[in-house]
Amino acid sequence: MKKGFYIVAFISFLYFIMCLLSAKHFEVACNVSAKAKQDDAFAQVASFRNWKNWSIWFNHDKTVHVTFSGPETHVGAAMQWESAEFGNGEIYITDFEPYRFVRQKMIFKKFDSEFISEFYFEEKSESTEVKWLMKKELGFLERPFGFVYAKSMKKDMEPSLQKLRSLIETRG
Fold it and tell me: What is the pTM of this model?
């Protein structure tokens, strides 16, 4: 009995040390270059109604129910989802600069978790650079899992950006 207590106490102590030493936030970024106009890329991201065209999150759960509220684009535009597999949540635009920048707040209700998502658009001579940044402030007990969040997000962000590139290059 005593041995079990010491093992649990030791593991708890190690976890506490990991929480103290781990980063307080995580951030992951992915980029794609598309042979398309900046406004074409921006239009796909700035309207949540277009996300089904390129975001692979819609491929993960075919039964997800999505609703929209607020304006179609600009600050206040929102998308809510209900998913048996991933739980319910919402995402809404919090900052917006036409054709250059979109910031969104994403809330996963099942995990009581919030993320910030940012998209940057920069037109080059014959292409548009799209940068997608995801970040999250981590609670004390979440800190050791920051790298898991980052890896999981990147796994979805990269193929979504590739789909976005194919979509806007085909339509452009």
Answer: 0.88
Which residues of the chain are under the pLDDT cut of 50?
none
- Dist. CA 115–CA 138, nearest whole Å: 10
Cα separation, 23 vs 19, in Å, equals 8
Q: Which residues pair with 137 in a beta bridge?
A: 25
The per-residue pLDDT for 79 is 97
Contact 30, 132 (CB under 8 A): yes
pLDDT of residue 10: 86
**Domains of the chain, first to last:** 24-171 (3.30.530.20)
3-state SS class at 94: strand
Work out the burial of residue 10: count CB atoms within 10 Å of its CB; fewer than 13 is exposed, 13-18 middle, 19 or more buried. exposed
Q: Side chain identity at 67, as an amino acid letter?
A: T
Residue with tokens 């809330």: 107
